[in-house]
Structures are given as structure tokens and as C-alpha cells.
Amino acid sequence: MKDMADPDLDVPLAELIVCPHCDAAYNLQVPDIGDKAICQRCKAVLIAPLHKAGLKIIALSLATFVLIIGAAFFPFLNIDAAGNRNSASVIDAALAFSSGPLLLLALATAGLILFVPLIRVVLTLYVLVPIVLDLPPARHAMRAFRLSEALRPWSMAEIFALGCAVALVKVADLATVGFGPAFWMFGGLVVLIVAQDSFLCRWSVWNSLEHPKKS
Amino acid sequence: MGKQICGRCGHKMVSRDFGSLQRVWAFWVVGLMCYVPANLYPMLKTKTLFQNDESTIVGGAVELAHHGAYGIAFIILLASVAIPLAKFWAIAFLAVSVKSHRAAANHSRQVMYEIVEYIGRWSMIDIFVVAILSSLVQLKTLATINPGPASIFFALSVIFTMLSAQAFDSRMIWDEPAKDGDPS
How far apart are CA B1 and CA A42, in angstroms? Predict the structure, then answer.
């Protein structure tokens, strides 16, 4: 099964699906809503359509967008030690590295916890809104979706949320630490991002981008 | 085999990316090189009223253990030392295993690859904790925490390890006829 364009194969290419992880080829059979098509060889999920997944993802993306913007500016932790108070927002945390050569790290931190998740939300909305509304796909929607998928491992808002908890444990004996509003926003963000990821069936998105419904 | 363009998403297509292993090793070596100074230089510079403290990752954990916080010390050693080293080992093992033909079962290697890819990004948590602590603990004379030079090396090490794992083409695992009775 090394080469898909095998001339001996008399199945049309559109009816084949190849596992992106292990390259096993199958005859395409779209599972029912709620079921999953799983690669027999490496057990990767190939297709997992869900009822109204597009609409759910759009709703979650909008919520994520609002939370990221909010979480960026409100303080997420505040500290109080012997009358000295300080509170930090995500912007502050990213700018903590801003002296000298650590500036690069500041930019990377801000990018990973704010800008990459934001870009992914915008791209997701750009791709999915026309699909859900049964409109023809937006211009360059396929490239947008590919970019969004490529950015996925670099979107680290949920890791930052756990980082808050670890930092809290570390400072707890040094001073009184309290949660700011942004901490709870990040908490919500973790749930939203995990949910959004589990609703998204990549095959369905590609398929509807390639074969838009005629309305 | 020439490069073709995917008719759907416009990405370049190759049946097997034979440059893949070279990129894996290149990123792997850079990641490992960055991991050395990440452990030698201080990660956090803590200034309190009476003392000036610069601790490395391992040094900080040892200090915590002296104070009796064995649990936290263990977690730090696990997350910042054991897991990164395990990742280096796992990627190297996978890259070697597709070349030498006496490899472990395909499915367990696939699982291993997925674990490495999943865990990779979570190592950034150390960097975020440093960022959070140094923006939060700025209490003038009482106590201040600032990031040390190790933080940038640690971040680079994590990023290059992630790139190394991403460069690995997991389909190569399945190219050899399976020895464990997998249908292929």
C-alpha cells in the first residue's frame, strides 16, 4: 500500500481513505453520526462525525475568544506578603522576561499562550462559519484550516493554566496568594479547548470544504 | 520520487519523507545541546531580605528536599529532568528503530510516538511557572524573583524537542512487515 496512485488499483481515489499515521489504505465508508471509523492497524481515529459538531465548535470558539481576551488583561494571581501587594496578568507574565536577551522568550511566551490560541480561534471561525451556514467555503479556507491544524501543538493556553496552579503551590508558603478573575477564565478555557478538540472531526471538515453543499 | 502538491490543502506530498530522519536528528541534537546549559545555569534568581539565591533545576529540587518537601522535589525532578531525558531517549529509540530491523512491536512504537508528541508541549510548563513567579513576586525589598539564563535554554530545548518529534514520519514505523502478527 505504498503508493496510492497504483494503476492496478481499480477503486477511484475519491473512495479511498489513507490513515495519516500509518498509511494503511481503506475503502471509504462514512460512519453514522456518533460512530467512529478507526484504523485497524494503528487504532487512530479516522472519521468521527458528531451531530451539529460545526455549530458546537463555533459556539465554543466564540466563548474561547472572549475568555482569551479577558484572561489577557485581568490579573490571574495576586500576592500579599506583610503589606506588600502585587498582582499579575498574563501580559505581565509574558513581559517578565523582557530584560535583555530574554526578550525573545517574552515574545515566545506571549505568542504561545495568547496569540496562537487567538489565531486558531479566528481561523476556525473563518473556516467553519460558511460550512455551517451552507455557504460556499471562504477564500483560502483550506489553507486556513491547514494552518490552524499546524498551529495546534503550539497553542498552550491550557498548559499555562496548570502552570498557575504549580506557581501557586510554590509561593504559598512565602506569601498569601489569591486567585484573580483571569485564573478562573483560564480554568474555563482548558475545558473549552479540550471540548472543542473532541468535537472536531478533521475528515468531515476537509470533506465539506471539498464538496460544499449546493444551496 | 518528485514532490507533488496535495490537490486539497496545497501542502507538498511525499510518499516517504527520507529527509525526515535527518531533520529528527538535527533538531534532537540542538535540543540536547540546549538542555545542558538549561541545567547548569540558574533557572530562578530569588532575592529575599537576607539572602540572594540562584538555584538550578536540580539544585532547587535538592533544596526543597532538605526542607522536607520531598513530594514537590520529586515532582520537579520528574517533570524537569526525568521526562525531558525520557523524551530524548524515546525519540532516539524511534529514529534508530526504523533503521535497524530488530524493532519492537509496531503498535507499541506508535503508542510511544503519540505519547512523546503529546507530552512534548507540557514541558513548557516549567517556563510558564518561571514567567508567572517572576511577574508575581516583585515585592520590592521583601522578595523578588527573576528569571535566570537557564529559562531561555530550557524553552529552546523544549521547542527543538517538539520540532524533532514532529519531523518524525510515523508511517515509517509501519513500513517494515510486522513481526508481531499485525495485519499490514
Answer: 26
